[in-house]
Amino acid sequence: MIPPVISKVFSCYLALLYLNCLTDLRFYLNKTSYLCPQFSGGKLFHIGRLSTVDLEEEIDEEESVVSRPKEIPHNEKLLSLKYESLDYDNSENQLFLEEERRMSQMGFKCLEMSRWLVCALIGILTGLIACFIDIVVENLAGLKYQVIQQNIERFTETGGLSISLILWVLLNSAFVMVGSVIVAFFEPIAAGSGIPQIKCYLNGVKIPRVVRLKTLVVKVCGVICSVVGGLAVGKEGPMIHSGAVVAAGISQGRSTSLKRDFKIFEYFRRDTEKRDFVSAGAAAGVSAAFGAPVGGVLFSLEEGASFWNQMLTWRIFFASMISTFTLNFFMSIYHNKPGDFSNPGLINFGRFDSDSTEYYLYEIPLFIIMGAFGGLLGALFNVLNYWLTILRIRYIHRPCLQVMEAVLVAAVTATVSFTMIYFSDDCQPLGEDQLEEYPLQLFCADGEYNSMATAVFNTPERSVRSLFHSPAGSYNPVTLGIFTITYFFLACWTYGLTVSAGVFIPSLLIGAAWGRLFGILLASFTPHNSIQTLADPGKYALIGAAAQLGGIVRMTLSLTVIMVEATGNVTYGLPIMLVLMTAKIVGDYFVEGLYDIHIKLQSVPFLHWDAPATSHSLTAREVMSSPVTCFNLVEKVGTIVDVLSNTSTNHNGFPVVSRLSDGCEPGKICGLILRSQLIVLLKHKVFVERARSRLNQRKLQLKDFRDAYPRFPPIQSIHVSQDERECMMDLTEFMNPTPYTVTQETSLPRVFKLFRALGLRHLIVVDSDNQVVGLVTRKDLARYHLGKHGLEELQLAQT
Q1: Same domain? 289 vs 411
Q2: Do residues 286 and 295 touch, judged by C-beta distance below 8 A?
Q3: What global pTM score does this model have?
Q4: Which of 101, 268, 433, 624 could form a disulfide with 774 if both were Cys (CB 3.0 to 4.6 A apart)?
Q5: Residues 234, 105: contact at Cβ < 8 Å?
Q6: What domain of life does the UniProt record list for this protein's source (predicted)?
């Protein structure tokens, strides 16, 4: 029977969605002009008035309010044009080569030492941020639970527990409202765990504002409010995003948000170097979260970085070790145990080193069955969250509605938790070695506590540890079953809210609950004198946690090492690996991993490791973009300005060619120049009055380009007079004279492999005479994928 409070809350929520749907339906019946017609080529169409190509363009506020549709139509067959690629391939122009040649051997050694120094600073700051989050969450959550516990104990005998429920709801809603408001209104990119965004960034996609200082501040404050607010979330996932932001900021030696330039690490102000440091930051975040430095390195390798080398591995491992050491050191001081390095990460699973947690060969099939069940539950979780996210994209896209939904989820979570505790009759004796931080007696006898309260009236990390290490008999099977089902749907509803939160700990908690239930049921059907090891449910809680997390996020190698390092027992390496592999195989049969789903929902042009298996029939001629806008070696300034100002194309790379004498045929390829380079040249007026003039152009250095990185000014902010438009610009010194090219007949898998392995942004297609005929970009490759009916082509849209 559903309590009246929950019924009323859900009724209000459904009524709100119903009214919203009616309003949106009326809106679209009257405003059908929002959908633009398809272009003749069928490759590009626009949706609504969601202009996202020029991020610097200012839109009239009143017009945007009037014309903003209340429902955003969503189609998973789209690929967004608003995302640009990062320049991971160095532009080896004359300026770059001259600087490299001038640098001595000692200069290169100093650069290498600077890289190690940056990695050390990344580890230290990431560890300090993790320490700050842990201390603040522990104190605020402890204060909240103590207040609620005292209130419940006071009203248990006298009556009036509804006041305790209201207090719990109000406290949760207040914290969550603060966390949601700062995310929704100040920095929306800080929502969620940030792992999908960091995966995209390391894959080569430029996600706007993902590594800003403002994003880091909102992320840290938001995750504190979310965890303290009692949501079904964890603080470990956002640490990966936080570490990446720290790495991106430190490696540049300045803060563009604060407009402070410290004049250090200027050599690293380019995407190639920044990518490597962000990989180290993500690994340091994993290390600080789980106390798993090796797992952090493997996480960056498996889930993040697209490009790898041996020295990068060492530097990333160094950053990870520094991160977990820093957290350990300061947490030992905080706990008045200096030198006691027993808190390597934010989550501490405890030690699985007792004899009762051993496993035997005949248990491995049971572990594999649990892995398959975890894959099924993970697939169900991902499917439900997928449709819920579609609903949010269409209807709950305004900040005020997003905050309302977050507060609603916080209120429902508190209400459901209180209801489960209230109706639970699972009373356990309160022993001297009990692990419960805030035991609730409620209606239990003296010397007993409510077992359901141990799972829900606590932070998720402590609940996981309790399920792992509480002795047999601490939980009733009915309690675990009800908690698993309830927390599963709460976690599914919570992930995707406009709050900073992760899914690691909720997944572990769900899996630990049904894994412990599996162990209890297995022991009850087994004779006690035949197999004694089945009597301990702690190891099954661990296996269930791994199976559930693997079934949701589909990580294998890195997650195996993370779990082994977090438990401190390599004995479980084989079972955890088998469980994670089984969960991934079973889950992938139904649906993709949770992070991949959210990447696809954002229509990001994400490139996987390999091209689609059935794409050998396609060639570069069929996938390339053409015709291509090219420049001469010496080009007229007015022509350059007109091309850069054309918002309908918004190209970022331009082949430089040598025109033939008659000017009718395309010229041979001479190089490639980027939009950002041309903007810097125009800003510094690097041109002469006429071609072949004896006057030299103004000399620029690489420092001028690095000072403008990464926020290059828009072309609209650069004033070029009419006389200057008639001047000529020599691109020879600034273009990349050795761009990568392929012929028209190159197969799509070969183009994909070259593009993906080298981290390219542009790949020029030439004919047999080395003349430019097309250009391959990330979007040209990402739009081909394997669907239900074979090879499918996505549509490009400005969404």
Answers
A1: no
A2: yes
A3: 0.86
A4: 624
A5: no
A6: Eukaryota
